[in-house]
């Protein structure tokens, strides 16, 4: 990779991908989604991540999403593009596509489908770092890839310049604390982001540089306030905001007619439709949009603890 | 899918993908590999499966492998092509490509990366079955996709015509017995294959129609003998052959300098090189070819219990 | 341990523990259960295993169960007693109690609750073997103890005299084949039993010496026939019997009002009550006896594929 | 249970069990351990937990440990006794013994060894709560028992009076935040403790009432300072102290010659021996005391970030 022109920090929401009823990209909704985030003060956007339904998108669809995101953002904040695929050679193709489309950085997971050893995980990121023209972020998401990223390995990859940062969706706050401490000891080569919407205040207390909140689609202003309070050392404000956002995040656990990935992303889309930001809450195949009963469950939570000006 | 022109059974090895040193497809080696299998009497071949390093292949590489396999086989046996990818829309693109390339059937796993519920797994195969022009086989491989395929669901999908068969790599012989019994009760809509090289005799006793053995790259004749003995009810011959093949399969557990997926496929490639079938034992990035010490371990096992005429 | 006075093989059912309504041992029912098994021709009995609800029994209850089992069996077949507890010092106390009560051998799992390494697992069995006055069987049951027993380690423990055999409830038929082959290569120091009621024929084909079937409480004669057919090399008879027993084993998957351990043992007790062998289908706290609806589900299966004379 | 005479909060270390070389309780070392904690200002002590090697202790040894703890503490702080065993009837016996020995409360896990459903987990705690004469704490420790305790269930058990609090060793900070929020909404029936030494500051930010730190054996004063800072809202002091304690906690990850449970408790014992608090770092069978090389690794960390006055 080349030297990074920026040091990323703050709130970088993973963008949901609004669909029309027939499951094509709904561009006007996507524009409203992004503009609302920028107005709220986010520090970057992250298309083509797990929340963006990247695993469901054909390469054609991926290219369209990224092109539109770059067009809409228009340089106002960095665009960090997911390059999610099974193993190194396939990921490298997405890296090339992302760079060509104007992404400012890319986000890659550990290899998946074929079981890898720690040596292969490290090599994977070394190869990505060596061949990418933009900074590479490592995405620790064992629920999807079933491999953990070792904190010491990540700091070593940061020190060697292979990766510029980490998005932690590991669900392991102990590992996160160890990562931030090791990173600090190594001179902080990594920008460290948490992906856990429920406990961002604690992650900041542990030393996070920022947050990649799926719920930031629904309530970007809340996460911006939380980031600013934590950065200012105003922990009481941070945790009060976090408590509200944690209650709002219950929308992802509210569905009774579906589950898994679709329960979370489906809730974000449902909330965004209810808020008038996007047009439909359509989901990619093989999923359906939330049932009426599940929509009502989301609405009840929104009514109680939804976005506040 | 259209009605299947064939009912698959017997030995259908998943083809390893021979590479040149610089990691392009080694076509002459691939030809030798396939011709040796056909000479041994296999009943089909399976390119683009896990053993074929499909997770590492770009779409361009996938297309080349399948085209060459179809060309070399030239209609002598069915070519069953893997269409492995994360979720339904991406898999559908591979189905189209496989059909266009001349595959006789396709093999798809449960969706992966994004966590799915049983309802989505079923819908996934229903969509594939409805839109594929060739028969669809369900590939139960939780070690890669981290989702199991329920026996009752598979039989239901078979009865409705969505899938034509199952390749079972679940590691669950209880589930396999339940599947074969349920399938028989439903009129045997499914052709049921085991993917477990170590215990094929037991799988046949449980009612398997065939086997998809990675080790069939190394010793296709052994699996053909095992299939024929089991089919003939000569269980003593079947288990004697299986005992030898199980000892040979220890090559996949022999490596000390690597592990995971690479230890198994690396062993197949190493053995094939030692046997003079393929040119190199090169592996895809981020893996290396077996170390000299691991090559020696494979050689020792081959010398003791390797392929017999 | 002292030299074993016997080499165990054949059918050794784990005994369910019949309870009165107020959850004390129902001795007359226990007598009927054991006498029926002996009449069917079993080769041993196994009280205080998982099926015997050992994890629910106080030490006083354990002592009573074992004393009654030894009294009823009266030397006609070996009594193999479970000595299940968390870690070595607690297991050793159960070994002493079992020997004092007249058990012919003991069955111990890997240590559990505290996470152990392979070195500790091996040491555990070495200590048990060195201090037990009767043969020790290793019980590989990861669903309960969350640790696997490595085949090579077990054969090594057999060769050194620490253990006399293995009960395999691992759900891993590949590991089982590897175990039987390694054991044979080492001169067969171990008697190897499968605990998987669904696939006993395949286990015998793999080289099993016997079976420890929970379903043997319900249909001991079926497993005796299966054992005899397999031992005689009559595999068609073996698999026909196994197919019926596999269909009968569906009682353990039939409950809709409960799950987990209670669904299996509850089904055995329910079937035994329906067959008139035991008085109640009471379960230990915190479980309830099967609901009427679940009893009906068990009855339907029994009516179709139940014990045959 | 009777109404609790106290509302527990603050620092309640789980007591290691010092052993003589021949693995009997080292009473003088145990006294020094407890007195040092009391001098540091802890709010309670917790014998017979996982750290106390309860899974290794015979019932006789358990009784001795608890008797000595009660004697030494002599009413200065509450004594919370573990009643860890596989299933309800066995746990109830430990409850009776603990009450008779003078414990002020008991701590019980979910049932283990036999797989349970959520309904059985709830019933288990209801039975314990109904029959215990002292308050019951629920111990959420999936790494040992392989079952999670659902936050909503725990709050319901708290509201009904079955349990008085929770010790969370789940490794799931999201679940912990949800628990504290639900508990607050229900009127805070539960006292909620974290067991994660690495991230206690974040747990307090999430609303923890206290901490049960194994590392509190080594550095009780550090956790008392952390508790007091967090309680006072001085989050910068809290996290500075936590950062040091997290670095100290690396002793539990330092061993190279052992692993699992023994690596953690072995490190605590080794540090306590190096600090002159206990006489030996002996471990229960089947474990050994730390090797000299591992002792050196612990010493290096202690020298850098060990207990501070």
If you had to describe this structure to a student in words, what would you say it looks like?
The structure is a homotetramer of 309-residue chains. Chain A is of the alpha/beta class. In chain A, 47% of the residues lie in helices and 8% in strands. In chain A, α3 links the parallel β2 and β3 (105-109). The longest helix of chain A has 15 residues, at 59-73. The radius of gyration of chain A is 18 Å and the shape is globular. Chain A starts with 9 loop residues before the first strand and ends with a helix. The interface between A and D is medium-sized, with 26 and 25 residues. Chains A, B, C, D: Belongs to the DapA family. Chains A, B, C, D: Keywords: Lyase, Schiff base. Chains A, B, C, D: InterPro entries: Aldolase_TIM, DapA-like, Schiff_base-form_aldolases_AS.
Keywords:
homotetramer; 309 residues; alpha/beta; TIM Barrel; seven-stranded parallel β-sheet; 12 helices; 8% strand; globular; Aldolase_TIM (chains A, B, C, D); Schiff_base-form_aldolases_AS (chains A, B, C, D); DapA-like (chains A, B, C, D); lyase (chains A, B, C, D); schiff base (chains A, B, C, D)
What value does the average pLDDT of chain A take? 97
Assigned CATH class of chain A: Alpha Beta
The major beta sheet of chain A can be summarized as:
7 strands, parallel
Please, how many domains of chain A?
Answer: 1
Order of helices and strands of chain A: EHHEHEHEHHEHEHEHHHH
Shape by Cα distribution of chain A = globular
Number of helices of chain A: 12
Q: Please bin the fraction of helical residues of chain A.
A: 40-55%
Question: What percentage of amino acids of chain A are in beta strands?
Answer: 5-15%
The chain-level structural class of chain A is: alpha/beta
Stated plainly, the CATH topology of chain A is called TIM Barrel
Question: Low-confidence parts of chain A, pLDDT < 50 over ≥5 residues?
Answer: none
CATH superfamily label of chain A: Aldolase class I
Q: Multimeric state of these chains?
A: homotetramer
């Amino acid at each position: 990779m080349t030297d990074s022109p920026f040091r990323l920090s703050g709130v970088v929401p993973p963008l949901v991908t609004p669909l029309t009823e027939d499951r094509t990209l709904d561009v006007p909704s996507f524009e409203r989604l992004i503009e609302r985030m920028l107005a709220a003060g986010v520090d970057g956007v992250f298309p083509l991540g797990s929340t963006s339904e990247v695993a469901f998108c054909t390469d054609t669809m991926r290219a369209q999403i990224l092109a539109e995101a770059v067009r809409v953002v228009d340089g106002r904040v960095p665009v960090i593009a997911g390059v999610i695929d099974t193993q190194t050679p396939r990921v490298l193709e997405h890296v090339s596509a992302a760079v060509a489309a104007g992404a400012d950085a890319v986000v890659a997971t550990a290899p998946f489908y074929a079981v890898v050893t720690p040596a292969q995980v490290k090599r994977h990121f070394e190869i990505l770092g060596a061949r990418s023209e933009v900074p590479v972020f490592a995405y620790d998401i064992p629920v999807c890839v079933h491999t953990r990223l070792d904190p010491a390995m990540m700091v070593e990859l940061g020190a060697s310049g292979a990766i510029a940062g980490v998005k932690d969706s590991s669900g392991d706050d102990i590992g996160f604390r160890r990562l931030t401490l090791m990173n600090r000891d190594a001179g902080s080569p990594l920008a460290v982001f948490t992906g856990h919407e429920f406990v961002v205040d604690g992650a900041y207390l542990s030393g996070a540089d920022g947050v990649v909140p799926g719920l930031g689609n629904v309530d970007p202003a809340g996460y911006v306030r939380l980031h600013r309070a934590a950065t200012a050392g105003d922990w009481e404000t941070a945790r009060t905001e976090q408590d509200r956002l944690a209650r709002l995040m219950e929308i992802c656990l509210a569905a009774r007619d579906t589950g898994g990935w679709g329960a979370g992303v489906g809730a974000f889309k449902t909330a965004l439709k209810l808020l008038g930001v996007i047009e439909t809450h359509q989901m990619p195949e093989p999923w359906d949009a939330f049932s009426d009963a599940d929509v009502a469950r989301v609405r009840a939570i929104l009514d109680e603890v939804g976005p506040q000006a």
